[in-house]
Design goal:
With about 325 residues, this protein is of the alpha+beta class. The protein folds into two domains: about 90 residues, CRISPR-associated endonuclease Cas1, N-terminal domain (Ribosomal Protein L15, Chain: K, domain 2); about 230 residues, Up-down Bundle (Four Helix Bundle (Hemerythrin (Met), subunit A)), CATH 1.20.120. It contains eleven helices and eleven strands. The strands form four sheets. It has a four-stranded mixed sheet. A hairpin with a 2-residue loop joins strand 1 and strand 2. The longest helix is centred in the middle third of the chain and has 24 residues.
């Protein structure tokens, strides 16, 4: 049965199965319009590219500059979809839509939580998936075999850890250095450098992680979480720390897709332009990269939603950590 919080109908697994995520690239001439209860996307020649009912819309990503009308705002609230506004370089600059803020008991639990068990659970899940990806490589060399063993040790260390949170985060950084350097062995890997865009691989990872972040963020909003109140990444001004937390087990989806795309020649350095030492994706490649990077997320959207839903139920009932959900990349579609 669906739960209700201050009159807002909480979405269910059956609902999310039917929901859609749509990207509109206004900088390529695409246009948004509405016909009755349908959203209509047209190309620069006026031809309809997509048309579907607003009842099935979950998230609308708008890339480029859009004049927001009262009709768009009203439909967002009427049909319960969230709109993410992105620059042509795929940077989020605003969010519009329904946010379920009435779940007072949930937020009370969030603000009172002061333990590290959930943080350990999230981090060990992330490292376990990194370990799975590395171990799945064919013809592993000595360094990759050794890296798998190191990640096994980090998982064990995290699960046994009993210190403070800041030192726990050190395991995340150590595991990342071991994983990325050995997983992206087909490129001249210089280290994971978030948001710096120091090379085309880091820039591509940032794009994929950004899409993943916003989808998880929207799912957390469905249940009424304060997304700024985290358990692994604790409070920092204007950072959605809880979203940062629950993204972690799913980053492996993007990692796997990026490595595969590099090997197939679908992602390459020539797709980027260098501006002030930053690798920026050329505009005419935006839609191609979005389709490529969103695919593993869409293939696993139900697993992601169930994970968030089970996390919500476990957190609300304050269950033991063994009853919290786990996402395994080996079970991914």
């Amino acid at each position: 049965m669906l739960q209700r919080v201050t009159g807002y109908k909480m979405i269910s697994v059956k609902d999310i199965e039917k929901k859609q995520i749509i990207f509109v690239f206004l900088n390529y001439g695409e246009k948004i319009s509405f016909s009755n209860d349908n959203i209509v996307i047209k190309d620069d020649a006026g031809k309809i590219k997509h048309q579907s009912t607003c009842y099935r819309l979950f998230i609308l990503f708008v890339v480029g500059h859009l004049t927001v009308t009262t009709g768009l705002i009203q439909r967002s609230h009427k049909f319960g979809f969230v709109i993410y506004f992105m620059t042509p370089t795929l940077r989020i600059y605003d969010v519009l839509g329904i946010h379920n803020k009435g779940n007072v008991l949930l937020r009370k639990h969030q603000y009172e939580y002061n333990d590290i068990e959930i943080a350990k659970w999230i981090l060990s899940n992330k490292i376990a998936n990194q370990r799975t990806l590395l171990n799945s490589l064919r013809n592993k060399n000595y360094f990759q075999e050794n890296a798998v063993k190191k990640l096994d040790c980090y998982i064990d260390d995290v699960q046994k850890y009993s210190g403070n949170l800041s030192s726990l985060l050190g395991y995340e950084g150590s595991a990342a250095r071991v994983f990325f350097g050995n997983y992206f062995d087909k490129v001249n890997w210089q280290g994971r450098k978030p948001r710096i865009k120091s090379d085309f691989v880091n820039s591509t990872l940032d794009i994929g992680y950004t899409i993943l972040f916003n989808i998880v963020d929207a799912m957390l909003n469905v249940f009424g979480f304060d997304n700024y109140c985290g358990v692994l990444h604790r409070q920092f001004y204007m950072r959605k720390s809880l979203t940062c937390d629950l993204v972690e087990p799913f980053r492996c989806l993007i990692d796997k897709q990026v490595r595969k795309a590099i090997n197939l020649g679908q992602i390459k350095q020539d797709d980027f332009t260098v501006v002030q030492n930053q690798y920026l994706l050329k505009w005419d490649n935006n839609s191609l990269y979005v389709r490529l990077l969103i695919k593993p997320i869409m293939d696993n959207k139900m697993e992601i939603f169930r994970f968030v839903q089970e996390y919500y139920r476990a957190f609300m009932k304050q269950k033991p950590i063994e009853q919290y959900p786990i996402f395994k990349i080996e079970d991914a579609e």
